[in-house]
UniProtKB/TrEMBL annotation, chain B:
This is Sister chromatid cohesion protein DCC1. Transmembrane segments: none annotated. GO terms for cellular component: chromatin; chromosome, centromeric region; Ctf18 RFC-like complex. InterPro entries: Dcc1. It comes from Kryptolebias marmoratus. Signal peptide: none annotated. Keywords: DNA replication. PANTHER family: SISTER CHROMATID COHESION PROTEIN DCC1, SISTER CHROMATID COHESION PROTEIN DCC1-RELATED. Belongs to the DCC1 family.
Length: 162, 390
């Protein structure tokens, strides 16, 4: 299933390509569980989001996993400071106009013996298809730290004035 | 991992003074399993946010020919992916300034892990559910009444609520509401819509009984109706008919139905209008009034969205035009209407575009967007924005 460019603002219509295969031959429902696994809490936890302009590329092109991204500090006046490599960025904490839900994908398995009480839809067809993919809400994001300024290089070796 | 000394050295070079800073320095690093594939971001409105906080589930519904929608228990949203040029990182353990008050005075490093990142999110837009498919599915096998001797049950194309939920892009509540509107009922666990002639037959039994018993149509006793009509039709069907065309109430432990004049008159008009393409308006109005139960009055405004009156022809005519038969897509609907008739008054066109209105959108706004207005004989009329073939 390809996603034709939508006339309004270049947004794509459908779900990601992997999800597209969900609809391959039978119409399905993909459930998004609201509650947290085994949680007694009221609702999912709240996470913080950090928004950066541009892409993040690892210096040695070794991928991002396990690597340090940067150091985050706050000034006493509440300005956020992010030091990434040799650059410094300034940002602020904003409340999101529209909160986000962070969804975790659970790919479908055929005999998933999970302790989940709800969630996976077992499609009973003649061909005994595996349970379909489902999602759960892992967290809500209501605030973000946004760094919009151009990263300023931190110049080293500035000769000290005598 | 960076040490405190390394961080402080960088701060000095960057000319950030220790005394101006909150002493907690959070070192952010990517978790071992970080990737963008496992997480999705979905934008929420207030209602959905509350749903999720309450632990309610949501469902994505769609099939390969249609785009996907997100449904809560009672609302439907369009689902789109919106890309952003920015990078969005999730840092569950990251603290904000308000969470860092008190504690240590000296600079120290804490660690927070980035669990995932995205550069796109799902955008939701509330939309009117596409329910035309519901009637279309149920009309594949309408219920025509109990089987006569020798007839066999058609078991294909029958749908349970579960089947409908897998095929209709709407929330369960919206589907249930619409089933009521189209007078569907459950037979043997399957949702069935009645064949029009059969529905009229049932209604005819009821209205004739009301007439012959000289009951007020505002107080039709259920028990007697079932007893009298049981030889003719299944009791469930009689009761279903009463529910569709009347309002149930109890008085002195007895159940009655108050028949709805507008609904009954409208049904009888439909029955008449189906028989020809156009009718002489005056003749139609006479026949129509005669066909309704004693005590009921017919009015043309009962037929809004169901028939169209042509006052420009001589003699004036009326023809069947049901909004439920028109295209569901807004642009297609307008094109179709302008193909049927070049110019419309606001009064005539409104019943045929009312259901297209989004939240807080008026028919006036739709007309402004999709039609062009002009004056004709002193009255404001609307026509298509682009040439249509009439």
């Amino acid at each position: 299933m390809t996603s034709p460019a939508d006339a309004s603002g270049g947004k794509r219509w459908c779900l990601d390509p992997e999800a597209a295969s969900l609809f391959a031959d039978r119409m399905v429902q993909v459930f998004i569980r609201g509650g947290v696994d085994g949680g007694v809490d009221d609702g999912p936890p709240e996470w913080l989001m950090v928004e950066l302009q541009g892409e993040m590329v690892s210096r040695r092109n070794a991928g991002l996993a396990g690597n340090v991204m940067g150091d985050l500090l706050y000034t006493k006046e509440g300005v956020s400071v992010l030091i990434v490599g040799h650059h410094i960025l300034y940002g602020k904490l904003v409340k999101l106009e529209k909160p986000f839900a962070v969804l975790t994908k659970h790919p479908g398995h055929s005999q998933d013996g999970g302790a989940d009480d709800v969630a996976q839809v077992a499609m009973e067809t003649d061909r005994h298809e595996p349970a379909s993919t489902s999602y759960s809400v892992s967290a809500l994001i209501k605030r973000k730290l946004i760094f919009k300024t151009r990263p300023k290089p931190i110049i080293t070796n500035v000769p000290k004035k005598v | 991992m960076r040490t405190l000394e390394e961080v402080l050295a960088t701060l000095e070079i960057a000319k950030l003074k220790e005394e101006d800073l909150n002493p907690t320095i959070q070192c952010l690093s990517f978790g071992e399993n970080v990737s963008s594939a496992d997480y999705c971001l979905m934008e929420l409105d207030d209602t959905l946010c509350k749903h999720i906080e309450a632990g309610d589930s949501l469902v994505i519904r769609g099939d390969k020919d249609e785009r996907a929608v997100l449904c809560s228990r009672d609302k439907t949203y369009d689902l789109k992916i919106a890309d952003t040029s920015n990078l969005l990182l999730f840092v569950p353990g990251c603290k904000t300034p308000d969470q860092l008050t008190g504690g240590q005075d000296r600079p120290h490093v804490e660690h927070a892990q980035i669990w995932g990142f995205c550069n796109s999110h799902w955008e939701l837009r509330k939309q009117r559910p596409k329910l035309k498919k519901l009637k279309k599915l149920l009309m594949e096998n309408p219920y025509e009444g109990p089987l006569l001797g020798g007839q066999e049950e058609v078991t294909e194309n029958r749908y349970t609520m579960q089947d409908l939920l897998e095929r209709i892009q709407a929330s369960e509540e919206e589907i249930k509401d619409h089933l009521e509107i189209i007078h569907a009922c459950q037979i043997d666990g399957f949702w069935r819509v009645l064949d029009f002639d059969y529905e009229m037959k049932l209604l005819g039994h009821v209205t004739q009984l009301v007439d012959s018993e000289s009951w007020s149509f505002n107080k039709v006793p259920l028990r007697t109706s079932l007893e009298e009509l049981a030889p003719l039709e299944p009791r469930e069907m009689i009761e279903h008919c009463l529910s569709c065309y009347g309002k149930r109430f109890t008085e002195n432990d007895e159940v009655f139905y108050a028949l709805n004049e507008d609904k009954v008159c409208r049904a009888l008009a439909l029955m008449l209008l189906q028989n020809a393409v156009k009718f002489n308006l005056k003749e139609f109005q006479e026949v129509w009034q005669q066909s309704v139960p004693e005590g009921m009055s017919t009015r043309l405004d009962q037929l809004k969205g169901v028939s169209l009156v042509d006052r420009t022809s001589n003699p004036e005519t009326i023809s069947l035009l049901q909004v439920e038969d028109l295209p569901e897509d807004t642009l297609e609907r307008f094109n179709h209407l302008f193909t049927l008739r070049e110019k419309w008054t606001e009064e005539d066109i409104t019943p045929y575009i009312q259901d297209l209105c989004g939240e807080k959108q008026s028919t006036g706004a739709l007309l402004t967007k999709y039609a062009r207005s002009s004056m004709q004989n002193g009255a404001k009329v609307f026509n298509s924005r682009r040439p249509v073939v009439t």
